[in-house]
Design a protein that fits this description.
Layout (H helix, E strand, L loop, with lengths): L6 E4 L6 H10 L3 E9 L2 E4 L3 E3 L3 E4 L3 E4 L8 H8 L5 E5 L6 H12 L5 E5 L14 E7 L2 H11 L6 E5 L5 H8 L5 E4 L4 H10 L3 E4 L2 H24 L1
Parallel strand pairs: 1-2, 1-12, 2-7, 7-8, 8-9, 9-10, 10-11, 11-12
Antiparallel strand pairs: 2-3, 4-5, 5-6
Helix pairs in contact: 1-2, 2-3
C-alpha cells in the first residue's frame, strides 16, 4: 500500500449546523450528513422517525421531535456555501430520497463537487448524469460486501464505504483495484485506527475529533514535505 495520509471524514458532523461549521474549519477532508425524506422534506439526521412525534436511535433512545433541532438539506447546502467536502449518506426505506436530493443539488449547488453514499445502491442511479457527484457504494454486513465485490468485478466505481469489521488487507487490496476511495467506518478508537491502517484503507469515518485532527496534521505535514522537496529541486 502507498504511504499517503488517510482521509479524515467527520462521521455525522453534518447533522448539526454547528458541528458542520466546526468540522469544515478543522480541515477535515469530508463531512458526512445523513439525509432522510420525511413528509416531503429532506431532513438531515441519523435518528429514524417513529411516527410524527418521535425519533429513535437503535431502539434504545426515544426523543420527542419537538425537543430536537433537525436541519433540512437546503440549510446544510447554504452553510457549506459551495464547499466541496460534503458526503451525503442517503437513507431509506424509500428510494425517492435520491431523485429529490439530485434535483436539489442541481438547483442550489449546480456543479459543486459532492459525494453521495448509500447502502441502497439503486439510489446512485439518480446521479449518473451529474459529473460533479461522486457515487459511493456502502456495505455494512457480509452479504452486502460479497455483493459489492461481485459488482466491482464488473468495473470501477467512484468509491466504497465499508464497515471496518468486514475489512482485511486482502479485501481492501481487491477493492482498491476498482476504486481509489476506500472508506472504513466507524473508526472511533486507537485500536480501530490501527486496524484501518493495517487493512490499507484510504480514509476513515470517525466521530473522534482527536483522531481526525491527527490525520489532518499528518496530511498537512506530508504536503509540507512535498512542497519542500519541490522547492529544493
Amino acid at each position: 500500500m502507498d504511504d499517503r495520509p488517510l482521509l479524515a471524514v467527520a462521521h455525522r458532523a453534518g447533522n448539526r449546523i454547528d458541528d458542520l461549521r466546526a468540522a469544515l474549519a478543522a480541515g477535515v477532508d469530508l463531512v458526512e450528513a445523513d439525509i432522510h425524506l420525511y413528509r416531503d422534506v429532506l431532513e438531515v439526521r441519523h435518528r429514524k422517525a417513529l411516527g410524527p412525534h418521535l425519533y429513535y436511535e437503535k431502539w434504545t433512545e426515544l426523543t420527542r421531535r419537538r425537543d430536537l433541532v433537525v436541519p433540512e438539506l437546503p440549510e446544510l447546502l447554504a452553510v457549506a456555501a459551495g464547499d466541496p467536502r460534503l458526503l451525503l449518506d442517503l437513507k431509506g426505506p424509500s428510494l425517492a430520497v435520491a431523485p429529490r436530493v439530485a434535483s436539489l443539488l442541481r438547483a442550489e449547488a449546480p456543479g459543486v463537487p459532492v459525494a453521495v453514499c448509500t447502502k441502497q445502491w439503486r439510489m446512485l442511479d439518480a446521479f449518473t448524469d451529474d459529473p460533479n457527484v461522486r457515487r459511493v457504494y456502502s456495505a455494512g454486513d457480509p452479504l452486502q460486501l460479497a455483493r459489492l465485490r461481485a459488482r466491482l468485478r464488473r468495473g470501477p466505481v467512484h468509491g466504497v464505504s465499508i464497515r471496518l469489521s468486514l475489512l482485511t488487507a486482502p479485501i481492501v487490496a481487491e477493492l482498491r483495484r476498482a476504486t481509489d476511495l476506500v472508506l472504513a467506518w466507524s473508526v472511533d478508537t486507537e485500536e480501530a485506527l490501527a486496524h484501518a491502517r493495517r487493512a490499507g484503507v484510504t480514509g476513515v469515518i470517525s466521530k473522534n475529533m482527536s483522531i481526525l485532527t491527527r490525520l489532518i496534521e499528518e496530511r498537512d505535514a506530508g504536503a509540507a514535505r512535498r512542497d519542500h522537496g519541490l522547492a529544493a529541486a
